[in-house]
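Treating backbone geometry as a discrete language has practical consequences that deserve illustration. The sequence in question and its structure tokens are set out directly beneath this paragraph.
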Amino acid sequence: MREGIGLSRRRFLVGTGLLASWAGVAVRSRLFGGRSEKAPVYLFDKVCVQAGLSLEETAALVEATGLEGVDCAVRPGDRIEPARVREDLVRYDRLLRDRGARVGLVTTAILDTDSPHARAILETVRELGVRFYRVGFLRVGPDAAVDEQLRRVRESLARLAEWNRELGLCALVQNHSPTGRTRYLGGDLGELAALVEGFSPTEVAVAFDPGHALLVHGEGWLEGFERLREHLGVVYVKDTDRRRRFVPFGEGELGRMGFFDRLRRLGYDGPFSLHIEYDWGREGRRTRSELETAVGRSLDVLRRWWEGARTS
């Protein structure tokens, strides 16, 4: 049998219904029409792996903190192993749905249609009604000029876009600041604009991370964002301080950037991916209780920023 997913009638109707719903979100995000007081927030669950939480424990944490679900890391050595995506991602989503949540976003290591398990991942994502998946890290290599590397990545994105048209999905490219000696293609917002230019934003979009944009561009982040807004798909949120990098929510610069005001004025109603990147374990204790407290506090701050953002 071909590597595909056999859907029962019930699961097919659930999946396609959710897919249609998310397609509407993508179009509204792209056109910036309408607004939602309570935008969906999904926890990037890499932090739950770091804390040693099982799938069941993560689902319980999501329910306890009032999140809409998770941004699931389907990557080698992370929350879901790509080789087991058909079994484990479906089970994870079921555990979350039993608690009123869901797998809402997916983060992958996919870089092209020939990436390991790429087709299985995307078919499973489609089955679960997930709209957006993030592609893998685009590291700048020493083997070619940046323009040539941009060209190669665009060719890969074009092949993924063909799959996305078939499956009704949208690939996300994130802006990421340098880490040590590693620089990421698209971390510079001008490069990111060049990567997505010409693609339909329903097939290839941007996961915009204002924290990383602030680290790379300082006060010039807004100019770069304006070049990308027609391709905005999802917003990644982590509080950021240019001296200390990532900090507890409310201690950095994110709430003072005017970013959420800008989103409100644009009518953004897409999802937020909540990233816990600071050292959240008090005195080195990385327990479920400590993480639940950190996530709850971070979500409360994000909700206040969003609800308090000005529309004019």
Observations:
- The first strand starts at residue 41 and ends at 44.
- The first helix runs from residue 9 to 31.
